[in-house]
Amino acid sequence: MAQDPTRTSSGILVYETCLSFLKDACDELSTRNRSELGEDVEVRSRIEGYILSMTSEDVVGAIIDSLECRQRVLELANELELTNNPDLRTALRRDEERMATLLLSIFSSKSDEERVLRLEGNSAQHFLDVVQETLDSGFIALQEHTRLALRIVRKLSESCDMLPSSLFIIGVEERDEHPSFGGGFGDIYRASYGGQRVALKRMRHFLRGSDLRRIRLVSDPVQIINVIQ
Question: Of the candidates 96, 111, 103, 95, which has an alpha carbon nearest to the alpha carbon of residue 128?
């Protein structure tokens, strides 16, 4: 069987392509700028350290740690003045495609899903955010895969009383008192956001109660679904 491209010999490194690109770019800069060799060697050493520290032992841990890993990658890219480099963007896309592959492997594994549903606190929030970002970016495209992703988001949200961070919008103003439309999972309001009138979907959050399921409206878990002309 072919080796999973997201796995190194000692674990799973989600942003392997980006780190490899930055390492090569650092070597190239060292060759061109001998006067700054010491500084480039220090950056290269940090990259090698990140490769070790950002390698996870299992797929669920890799997903949880991936947000911090991406932040470190982007900070290094900025330090090397490569933030807008097209090759870095290509590397990021490849790594995010690998992220989607890892998520799909979790969706198809009962043991991995059970571990996900036991997550709490920051670990649960990070997992929810990664799944939602991957969906929003279009890396999970097939309808069946999308259904599985939304299913695990719903189940984890219920178990940990959290929602993906991207569902919360700050700065909504002049929201109508009553919804224009309603449904089983949310209501549609007219509101203002960024100086424009928008249609706003406010979601209901379902929680498990001791006797029966109760519904609680979370503080502004909303999604702009249309700009009103």
Answer: 103
What residues contact residue 196 under an 8 Å CB cut-off, 6+ apart?
227, 228
Residues 108 and 178 in one domain: no
Produce one character per residue of 18-45: b if its CB has 16 or more CB atoms within 10 Å, e if not.
Answer: bbebbbebbeebbeeeeeeeeebeebbe
Average pLDDT over residues 117-121: 97
**Predicted TM-score of the model (pTM):** 0.74
**How many whole angstroms separate alpha carbon 189 and alpha carbon 118?**
34
pLDDT tens, residue by residue, 66-114: 999 999 999 999 988 999 999 999 999 999 999 999 999 999 999 999 9
Per residue in 128-138, is it b (16+ CB within 10 Å) or e — as a string?
A: bbbbbbbbeee
First to last CA, the chain: 55
Q: What is the pLDDT of residue 38?
A: 56
Are 141 and 184 in a shared domain? no
Q: Helices 86-107 and 59-79, interaxial angle, to 10°?
A: 170
Lookup: tokens for 196? 């424009």
> Any idea how long the chain is?
229
Query: What share of the chain in percent tops pLDDT 90?
Result: 47
Q: Which single residue is written with the structure tokens 């590397």?
A: 91
pLDDT of residue 64: 96
Domain for residue 2, yes or no?
no
Structural domain for 25, as ranges: 7-164
Residue 24 sits in the same domain as residue 118:
yes
3-state DSSP assignment of residue 211? coil
